[in-house]
Amino acid sequence: MNIVCLDMEGVLVPEIWIEFARESGIPELKITTRDEPDYDKLMKYRIGILREHKLGLKEIQETIAKIDPMSGAKEFLDALRQKTQVIILSDTFEQFAAPLMKKLGMPTIFCNTLEVAPSGEIVGYKMRCEKSKLTTVRGLQSIGFDTIAAGDSFNDLGMIEASKAGFLFKSTDAIKAAHPELPAYEEYDELLAAIEKVL
Questions:
Q1: What's this model's pTM, rounded to 2 decimal places?
Q2: What gap in Å lies between CA 75 and CA 79, rounded to an integer?
Q3: What is the Cα–Cα distance from 31 to 5, expressed in whole angstroms?
Q4: H helices then E strands: how many in the chain?
Q5: Is 159 a member of any domain?
Q6: Would you write out the chain's pLDDT as a tens digit for each of its 199 residues?
Q7: Is residue 23 part of a domain?
Q8: Which among 50, 75, 155, 178 could bridge 33 via Cys, Cβ 3.0 to 4.6 Å?
Q9: Any catalytic annotation for residue 28?
Q10: Residues 6+ apart with CB under 8 A from 148
């Protein structure tokens, strides 16, 4: 039995931190997992900048409320879910993802949780498990699923490489150049066709 595992940000919706960097006028928040492979280092950096600027969960959620899925993303997801089971594996947080999942038709998402003080300050985060995407793919494989994975960033490479079939989607030139063995696509219809071939 097949199950498709998709990244969320950069694949189905715009990068939340990039959108928030634009809204807040803080360019340092534009750094994502496409730029920094060490997620713990990246999150500590982000939390430090938020603290410095006295910004919290409320301000980020106000930006997220304005974000729509990428053009064609919901149609792609709907078409894919007609053919097979799909799980979104994301290093984002429940507090960020919920409104975006509504706009995508409530697909299943496995993600992490922010630790938020009563004041609304983001004080930390709790990962669902270590190397969450790779660990989840291996867990699915251990209970009889063949996984097919697609993503755009460094933190997606583990699940892509461990799967029966894996694809880069809307990735960076640097990641594509470093992994020429991985098929890379830019359009949803191309990715859908590639996944259908291996189902």
A1: 0.95
A2: 6
A3: 24
A4: 9, 7
A5: yes
A6: 999 999 999 999 999 999 999 999 999 999 998 889 899 999 999 999 999 999 999 999 999 999 999 999 999 999 999 999 999 999 999 999 999 999 999 999 999 999 999 999 999 999 999 999 999 999 999 999 999 999 999 999 999 999 999 999 999 999 999 999 999 999 999 999 999 999 9
A7: no
A8: 155
A9: no
A10: 2, 3, 4, 5, 163, 164, 165, 166, 195, 198, 199
Instruction: Single out the residue of 22, 110, 26 nearest to residue 64, CA to CA.
Output: 22
- Does 40 participate in catalysis according to the annotation? no
Tokens of 114: 């922010």
The total domain count for the chain is 1
- CATH for 89: 3.40.50.1000
Q: Tell me the longest C-alpha to C-alpha distance in the chain.
A: 50
Report CA-CA distances (Å) from 128 to 89, 93, 94, 111. Answer: 11, 10, 11, 7
